[in-house]
Amino acid sequence: MGKVVLVTGVARQLGGRFVRRIQRDPDVGRVIGVDAVAPEHQLGGADFLKADIRHPAIAKVLAETRVDTVVHMDINGTPLGGRGSRAAVKETNVIGTMQLLGACQKAPNVKRLVVKSSTSVYGSAPRDPAVFTETTPPKSLPSGGFAKDAVEVEGYVRGFARRRPDVAVCVLRFANILGACADSPLAEYFSMPVLPTVLGYDPRLQFVHEDDAIEALCLAAGKPRRGTLNSGTFNIAGDGALLLSQCSRRLGRPTLPLFLPTVTWAGSALRSLGITDFSPEQIRMLTHGRVVQTAQMRETLGFHPKYTTAESFAEFARSRGPGLLPPAVLARTVDRLAAVLPARSGPTQ
């Protein structure tokens, strides 16, 4: 019959793509997609069950379908389709995870749990290390928003792992996921015509392509390869890093440097207008940045991303179209200035 895989959060594009991809795994016999709303995209041959993971009824779903692998993807920073409140998102992230883990604990057939987490659990602070490893404690725990949700979720997952040592638990801490279908607060920020930044700071940022995110989830949900182990906590990110200033140039979007209090005020205004979720936690990341080490991803999980950080961002930039300052035009202008200015300045004495 093959494995029976249950996937949460399938109404989002990433969840839908993962469901369609994992059906091609020869070891998978049945895939069940779960979400509180019906997806607008196709799920291939997967079964869809309309169920809210915040409700205890999710335990009945696991018992009746005899699921052995659970892939929890319903942990997000923004409401689906931009509709909904921050409180509803937090309930799904935290309360939903608690209910799902409670259901998994009571389901004897469940033998593998994969959780989509985030590198935001490390926070962003001025005294952060240059590179975070999976065991590096944050200098300053996230105080709110999606980052705090992710910290709480991981705490509940660790508790579940202690109570069910027979279940292989894999937590994937993804860097900012970007691509043509990216749906995140950072993607919304980069889609603005002008990017507000914190005066005097140029943070390092790291990305993972959405295709690589899906492949990492498939690897974690499948059978371990020889010499690898798909249980534990792993940072998932593309090689390299980009400065925020490099990102703005590649997007062709000018920056608007502001003092930190002004950026904080602007973030509150943008949130109240519903333009983007420019949260305090995101402002901290766009001030201090965040880079993680991915040695365990390669050596223990056995996953090697296809895209680097720069390549992931390049595809995202292409999907958003030219900005106010298209990179090609900007490059030609710089080249012309470089050719004209030396000629006018004359020989140096």
Spans of at least 5 consecutive residues whose pLDDT stays below 50 are 344-349
Which term fits the overall shape?
globular
Helix content: 40-55%
Which percent range describes the beta-strand content? 15-25%
Largest sheet: 7 strands, parallel
Output the structural class: alpha/beta
What is the CA–CA distance across the termini?
A: 83 Å
Task: Please state how the strands of the largest beta sheet are arranged side by side.
Answer: 3-2-1-4-5-6-11
Average pLDDT across residues? 89
Number of helices: 12
Strand elements, count: 13
Assembly state (oligomeric): single chain
- Note the run of SSEs as H and E: EHEEHEHEHEEHEEEHEEHEHHHHH
Please provide a written account of the structure.
With 349 residues, the chain is of the alpha/beta class. It is 41% helix and 17% strand. It contains twelve helices and 13 strands. The chain has helices spanning 13-22, 58-65, 86-106, 145-163, 185-190, 210-221, 244-251, 260-273, 280-288, 295-299, 309-320, 327-345; strands spanning 3-8, 28-35, 47-50, 69-72, 112-118, 168-174, 176-178, 195-198, 204-205, 207-209, 232-236, 242-243, 255-258. The strands form four sheets. Strands 3-2-1-4-5-6-11 form a seven-stranded parallel beta sheet, sandwiched between helices. A two-stranded parallel sheet has the order 7-10. Strands 8-13 form a two-stranded parallel sheet. β4 (69-72), α3 (86-106) and β5 (112-118) form a beta-alpha-beta unit. The longest helix has 21 residues, at 86-106. The protein is globular. The chain starts with a strand and ends with a helix. Residues 344-349 have low confidence and may be disordered.
